[in-house]
Design brief:
Distance between the termini: 71 Å
Shape: rod-shaped
Number of strands: 0
Radius of gyration: 25 Å
Largest sheet: none
Strand content: under 5%
Structural class: mainly alpha
Number of helices: 1
């Protein structure tokens, strides 16, 4: 392998690693955003239920 080929393969590897890190961080941000929306929807539903005067019964065992 010539030096130029080594440099090219190393550069490709570095770019691949950077792309994988960026993709992973975007996936985590997306997951956090989805969970935040789900929690917000649950909280909104609870507020609506409370506003309607519904009673929630909790059973302890």
């Amino acid at each position: 392998m010539s030096t130029l080929q080594k440099i090219k393969s190393l550069a490709f590897l570095i770019c691949f690693v950077i792309a994988a890190i960026i993709y992973n961080s975007i996936s985590k941000e997306k997951e956090i955003a989805i969970n935040a929306v789900k929690n917000s929807q649950k909280n909104t539903k609870n507020l609506v239920d409370a506003d309607k005067g519904s009673v929630t019964t909790i059973h302890f065992e």
